[in-house]
Specification:
- By secondary structure, the protein is α/β, with parallel strands linked by helices.
- The chain is built from 15 helices and 18 strands.
- Strands 2, 3, 4, 5, 6, 7, 12, 16, 17 and 18 form a ten-stranded mixed β-sheet that branches. Strands 1, 8, 9, 10 and 11 form a five-stranded antiparallel β-sheet that branches.
- Strand 13 and strand 14 form a beta hairpin.
- The protein is globular.
- It starts with a helix and ends in a 34-residue tail after the last strand.
Length: 444
């Protein structure tokens, strides 16, 4: 059965047209970047800073989670609401912009899980935080090139996006226009050139029920985290406060007494001295697990992360460089590594989990080397150099190969061992489950 799966995956990969590489933005590493120390700020930066300081003076220090929520998604001044942060001219570049191969392999993953589920007649592709729409466009291109496989399924695309700026970019990428305004819960809709319906939502809860493949690439790392510090008096929450020694600046301070978050979110068996807990992410993970177990499908999470080992990962990015997360709120991206041990703990009562697995291992298991060989045979020298450079960024451990992790949430039956059928004379086993693409050690 494993050999059959490998053969099927090879066939899916080779069914994708042997087109040349699509131009991609250049990714800039930030591992060695220095924290920004610039004190200059624009009027917009001052407005958000004044808002936060006024709030702190009125009600007291706020949690890091509340600070992130305000700085990133404030309806008037939030970073994600007003700014196009992606690309070479923005603050960061994501894997789909680095190489078309990334999205193509995730498209193959989606098709393989649809096949493993028995080829249901509906396939909803749902992406959380779809950036510019590059990943969804690559996945839909794979769907189109695998029409002979997917012909029995009615496919649709559902995007969960809170940013008006990014939703317009996604619409231009996917449907060629800014999309038609629609009544809530769908606030924008359209169709791709191939006729695939596309709908935009502000909340995951609003996406219709049904068999769905969920993709969450660099989504959870931008959700607000609470930070906690172990002290001699027990766990205390790390808060954002106005700096009394530097007017107009913010600082981190440890709360003198327990907060509701420090009492409820830190696990009793926690061994680290400093932890970050993304309670909002936990809610989304539980929603994904509930939908996968209730309606069928799978969810693939790919993000900066660790498996319960790291401590202080809260940081900012601006202009592709590390940036002081408390400086110029609303004008820089804020992020914290995803704790996949927390994701597993929240999801496992409802769904089966596989991973986390390093990106370079996942992509190699998915057949990135096979796809590279196909592309390299059909491009000129310049494109070949671009492909090679993009491959290095995705796979090198010092770049993204080890820093990004993959985890899948699956229907509980997906990993069940085959049972022995009852019978008086012949004992027959039910067919073995197909290995989960990307997470099995396959050889192409």
């Amino acid at each position: 059965m494993r050999g059959l799966f490998v053969a099927n995956t090879k066939q899916l990969l080779r069914s994708i047209d042997s087109v040349g590489p699509i131009p991609a933005a250049r990714w800039r590493a930030t591992t060695g970047g220095r924290l920004s120390s610039s004190s200059s700020s624009s009027g917009e930066e001052n407005a958000m800073l004044r808002h936060l300081i006024s709030k702190i003076k009125a009600t007291g220090p706020i949690s890091v989670a509340e600070y992130m929520r305000e700085a990133l998604t404030n309806p008037a001044m939030g970073y994600y609401v007003k700014k196009n942060m992606l690309g070479a001219d923005g603050d960061f570049v994501t894997s789909p912009e680095i190489s078309q191969i990334f999205g193509e392999l995730l498209g193959v993953w989606a098709v393989s899980e649809w096949m493993a589920a028995g080829r249901p007649d509906r396939l909803q592709l749902v992406e959380l935080g779809p950036g510019r729409g590059s990943l969804a466009a690559d996945v839909l291109r794979v769907f189109g090139q695998l029409r002979s496989v997917l012909s029995a399924a009615s496919a649709s695309l559902h995007l969960v996006e809170v940013s008006p700026v990014l939703s317009r970019l996604q619409a231009r990428t996917l449907i060629g226009t800014e999309g038609a305004e629609a009544e809530e819960p769908v606030y924008k809709s359209g169709r791709t050139s191939a006729g695939t319906p596309v709908s935009w939502y502000r909340r995951l809860d609003d996406v219709p029920p049904g068999f769905s493949i969920f993709l969450a690439h660099e989504f959870f790392d931008a959700l607000p985290v609470h930070k906690f510090q172990r002290t001699e008096r027990g766990w205390r929450e790390v808060m954002v406060d106005a700096d009394p020694d530097a007017p107009g600046r913010l600082r981190l301070a440890v709360a003198p007494a327990p907060t509701l978050a420090s009492v409820t979110l830190v696990q009793p068996d926690e061994t680290r001295d400093h932890v970050e807990v993304c309670a909002e992410g936990g809610v989304v993970v539980r929603q994904l697990a509930r939908r996968v177990s209730g309606h069928g499908g799978a969810a693939l999470i790919a993000d900066y992360g660790h498996d319960g080992t790291k401590t202080d990962t809260f940081r900012g990015f601006k202009g592709h460089r590390l940036h002081d997360p408390l400086e110029a709120p609303g004008c820089a991206d804020l992020t914290a590594d995803v704790d996949f041990s927390y994701v597993r703990r929240v999801a496992e009562p409802l769904a089966a989990c596989v991973g986390p697995l390093a990106q370079r291992v996942f992509l190699r298991n998915m057949g990135i080397d096979v796809r590279m060989q196909v592309l390299l045979r059909n491009c000129d020298r310049s494109a070949r150099e671009q492909l090679t450079a993009s491959y290095r960024v995705l796979m090198d451990g010092a770049e993204m190969g080890e820093r990004f992790l993959f985890m899948a949430l699956l229907h509980p039956s997906r990993l069940e061992e085959p049972e022995m059928a009852a019978g008086l004379k012949l004992q027959k086993k039910k067919p073995a489950q197909l290995p989960v693409a990307g997470f099995a050690q396959l050889h192409f």
